[in-house]
User: Fold this.
Amino acid sequence: MSFWTALLGRPLKEREAATESIGAAEGLAALSLDALSSVAYGPQAVLVVLVTAGAGALRLTLPITVAIVALLALLVLSYIQVIGAYPQGGGAYAVARENLGGGASLVAAAALLVDYTLTVAVSVAAGVAALTSAFPPLLRFTVPLGVLLVAILTVVNLRGAGESGRAFLPPTLLWITAVFGMIAVGLIAPHAHPAGASSGTPPAALETVGVLLVLRAFAAGCSALTGVEAIANGVPLFAAPAVRRARTTEVLLGAILGTMLLGVAVLAIRFHVRPSPDQTVLSMVTAAAVGRGWFYYVVSLSTTAVLALAANTSFSGLPILLSLLARDHYVPHAFGLRGDRLVYNRGIVVLALGALALLVAVRGNTDALIPMFAIGVFTGFTLSQAGMVVRWWRARPAGWRAGAALNGLGCLATGIATAVFVATKFAEGAWLVVLVVPSLYALFRRIHRYYTALGAQLRLDGPPPRPEPRRTLVVVPVRTISRLTVAALGDAKSLGSEALAVAVVWSAEEGAALEAEWARWDPGVRLVTLRSQYRSVVRPLVRFVRSLESRGGERVLVLIPELVPRRPWEQLLHNQLGVMLAAALRGSRDVVVALAPMHLDADRRPPAAEAE
Amino acid sequence: MSFWTALLGRPLKEREAATESIGAAEGLAALSLDALSSVAYGPQAVLVVLVTAGAGALRLTLPITVAIVALLALLVLSYIQVIGAYPQGGGAYAVARENLGGGASLVAAAALLVDYTLTVAVSVAAGVAALTSAFPPLLRFTVPLGVLLVAILTVVNLRGAGESGRAFLPPTLLWITAVFGMIAVGLIAPHAHPAGASSGTPPAALETVGVLLVLRAFAAGCSALTGVEAIANGVPLFAAPAVRRARTTEVLLGAILGTMLLGVAVLAIRFHVRPSPDQTVLSMVTAAAVGRGWFYYVVSLSTTAVLALAANTSFSGLPILLSLLARDHYVPHAFGLRGDRLVYNRGIVVLALGALALLVAVRGNTDALIPMFAIGVFTGFTLSQAGMVVRWWRARPAGWRAGAALNGLGCLATGIATAVFVATKFAEGAWLVVLVVPSLYALFRRIHRYYTALGAQLRLDGPPPRPEPRRTLVVVPVRTISRLTVAALGDAKSLGSEALAVAVVWSAEEGAALEAEWARWDPGVRLVTLRSQYRSVVRPLVRFVRSLESRGGERVLVLIPELVPRRPWEQLLHNQLGVMLAAALRGSRDVVVALAPMHLDADRRPPAAEAE
Assistant:
């Protein structure tokens, strides 16, 4: 069993593909963790912005959180419509493609790719932060821990074991219960637990609070709303009646997430929590509410677990999106091929590399990723709501006005929010998203153009012609007369209409000697010697083959004799002239390059006297 | 002009190979810099060891230096004999090979490879230290400066401009004059210049001086003797009478190096110089002798220049040694091939990588490299002196007893020194050399065994047989019926006795549809469909080809149709099934793999409607 088989598992047969039908509660675990787990960084993102204006600004946390929860409610209502309209799964790409056309759908796809990658980076960073808050000595391993987590997620998903609502349910329920319990204890507690009293870095003294600050805090907090769309994408996963179950899950998600966001915000104000580089806000709130006892560790560890699972959902989402784009010829077709474990392994690897690059670039700091986050998701929200409005307008079923009004309101709100994000967070990182999304869009277009042209070139106009044989000249590069030469010339004689041996020599004497030896042998194949003034063997051969080619009419096959050693490392002992020649000839039109292997024998002991 | 051509220069013709005949003074610049420049780190190496036993131990510097200079004199006399005996160039490898047999010569070769690499690392580290001593703000760029210097040396030598005694002469003479001038001023000065008074870190108080300490200091100081053998290796470079000129250079080298070593040692004691991590001993001695004025900077900068040139000599030595080993089948033959610029480019790259690894591992600290240094050179010294003794004994010319006695004494002294090095510096780094040299020896043997067996397999016993054509079956993997398929089947019909198309399908329906389409087309080539239960396309094809192979008798040619896009990046848009299949089939005996390219046209705009 090879290393890769041990790591990734044996190849699976087609019919071994997993099928799972989930209920409403499992839907919460399988499709909503991205949204729910943002409680771990959303409120903190608001506080991080507000604290720059001093301690007084922190009381704005509550109204801003209320605004965010209101937007959440609007989104939930909007997506309940989407679920009804697209029971086959209504991702922003699909909805925009059907209703707004190719251009909008590609923008949505680009935005989603960026956001899936950011979701992994943010969730992993926040998961590690939850861990290091609980165990401060781990703080200096922040980056390695993040890399390790991504590596584990990658391997799990390459094995194809990544999607499992049922397996995710227990940790999800534990975490929801723990957070609700913590909030309840915190609200009824007479005062902050001493272990968490007045935590965090003291804020600056300045107290000017402007509109811009409020908008920036709101934009940062909206990172908590990412993932709300995931249920609408995954309707087909639900057991029948799928639409009803999916809607129930969506409502549950909205209720739980809204309550949690408000609860954490209220406790953060109550316990005077201020953001700190060493501890997350959720950790400080928890410590103030329940102390740093066993319950604190249940909250912290289940938070890490849930964030890791949230990152995992991107690992199923992004590869599927890439495979849809590959099917539509917008990304390399290779993304549409499943690997041995029936997963889109190339998409998984691309996602892992992107997330790792982000994590390492910001050294695992969640707060540095937040400004880039949410723009992509909100672009997707806006486009899919706009698509829904167009859809209502086109079909106009009973009650279409109410539906269109709701989706229109959602489109407007999320569109404004997107504009606010770009405007307020541009310098802190949003510029990267503003740069990457249009670049991806242009790349999709460019790739699509290539495939369209390729198809036109390969397409046969009318019935395919009967393939006809052509005269073929087989050229064999040789160096000396050895068993390899004899075998290669035998192949050459078998294959073409005519065979020709070519040798590169460095002096007239060398050439004459080889020609004389050749004449004595008389193999029935003509020898051409090429005198080279330079050291390169490859260049004169390529030039010679090109000159034959330009003669035209016949097909040229270059047959390169090649020794294949038994052990791979022994390859290093052969100069790779054959492979180099093959690579150099790839640029030539109308030349078929063949490598004729001569396998070296297992018994490699020479017959006699090897020891000196 | 490509990037590489711009960096490394255009390819050279054979007859453009440089030829240079040098005189005695130029011999000093071309062949002795490795030895001479060790004044920059040899005395410091002695002080670094002695200072661990307190300030009092430093007075041992002079007797130890006298012992080192005595050994130098013995080596110079020994090598004068070697020069006479081997006017064609008497490297340790050649002398040991002729007189002591293959085993000893391989040990010498392994030791020399290690030492060439260490010479580059030590010279570069010391050169950077000379520079940072003069310009302390550069201190934190120690590692990048070292890497830059190695990179420059690599490029210069890959261009083939590395060897030039004439060009090296001016900086060498400037440096020798400057150091002698500094020593003279230092000796006659009434007291230390205030700029350099009592420099260096104060030593520890402990004052126990044992035999082991003296031996360790002696061993460290012997690093100053590396490179004494280089003139004997390069006798053919000298103009006639080459032996006499080479001997003059050897004597000059001994006199200059001995005087410098003694001078620096005397001044170091006189000015109470103690080693420091921030400044070299030579820099402190110079500052104390002449102050930190212009003359100080002349000494420092010419020291850096001379050390860089000393590192450069390894760049000509190691690749030549590797080419000799390649000719004798002890290292991969590729090391025996000259590149476009007529230099052994692979050897240059290997040396650069080895030196970089050492430099980075010790973070550019010369003192950390010294314990590894010299063991290799002294092993070479010992073996070549032993070889000379054997040679005297075998030929017994007039006066052979005196010659044998001298070389015997040299052999004994350097042999003892080698043992002392290994014993005293084992824990500080010598273990690495003790590990690497035997490993290299074993590797040489292993490679030689491989090539011997290979030769036996390729050699024809008796006159070569006439190559005979064989029945050939051409197998073409196909996926759909397109222009590519038509072209590939045309090639297949041209090449073999029989052609066969193979397609991998994932369902019975897919297979039936393709077969029906094939029957309508009727290309005159049979189609076989392979039903795959797994996702892999490559595995079923390989299995099918292997099954044909085992049928025996006929030769199988697998003709893989392949699209070649016009621009390299477009390659990414094609899944590399062809290349993967070719790689997977390399393991099959008796199968020729051919890639039949179909070049995509320059005009890639499709005829119509591309925009959606």
